[in-house]
Amino acid sequence: EEIGEKHTSDPSQEGKSFCPIEEWVVENEVRSESEVDEFNPLEQKDGWAIHLSVKAGSLTDGFNFAGVNPEASDTYDDGDDIGEIPMLPAEEGEFAPAYLRCYFISPTGDEYGSDYRSEVETSKEWKFRVEQVGEPEKVEISWDITTVPLQYYLYLKDRDNLIDMRKNKSYSGNKGEYSLIVSKEPIKVVLGVSNVGESYCYPNPIKGEGKISFVVPQDRRIRLKIFNIAGELVYEKEEDSGGDGIVEWDCRNSAGEKVTSGIYIYFIRDDISSKTGKLGVMR
Length: 283
Prior knowledge:
Elements lengths: L17 E2 L2 H6 L5 H6 L9 E9 L2 E10 L13 E2 L4 E2 L9 E7 L5 E7 L5 E11 L4 E7 L8 E6 L2 E4 L5 E5 L1 E8 L16 E3 L3 E2 L4 E4 L5 E8 L4 E8 L5 E4 L12 E8 L4 E9 L1
Parallel strand pairs: 3-7, 15-21
Antiparallel strand pairs: 1-5, 2-3, 2-9, 4-7, 6-7, 6-8, 8-13, 9-12, 10-11, 10-13, 14-16, 16-19, 17-18, 17-20, 20-21
């Protein structure tokens, strides 16, 4: 594609178009193959990583790694996390080439091409964004998961779509925001309920650290009580279920202490109906 070809600018940047920094304009792609070969996080880590490649027409961004390093934190780690090259606003009236850009969004809002985090206790989510200008709307996202231990379930989330990355090698979608989800348990598709009598909780049983989610009617005042097998009250709370229809319990008692492994009884109700059920905690 010619550098001088004019493209529609980002609507949020009135009067401006975008172009990469100078040395990357020559390549007309966000990451060059030589750069990926020179620094490959898959070969330099003690942990593991998911390697994402994004393609739109003739453009490819192949430098995207989300993974785990035993010594990493969930914030920035020098030597583990690599900042994404920013797209700089061009001066008004200048021409910008087509570009494709993929980057991870850290919990602190930073943009990374390589984002390593601490060990997965129950599940972790890496949010990422795909940006493009001057190519067809559709992008193809493919992945290499050969270094990821088989104990983990891997999912690509595109809005309401959940793609099993173990069963698929690529996904065709649009530019925008996505998520990678790594979990020790398979993710259950959450189906909404219309009354508390239909409520259910997941994961059940829960293994290790994490929270149990109770699926309840949306926008209701919910009262939740947790009892141990001896009938003693362990935890209780009252809150609005909100628009997502979810109430969570972090497997701690009212004093904030972790509960022990065992079977627990939950009692959940609103002003219309109630439900009692069993759940398991495995430490």
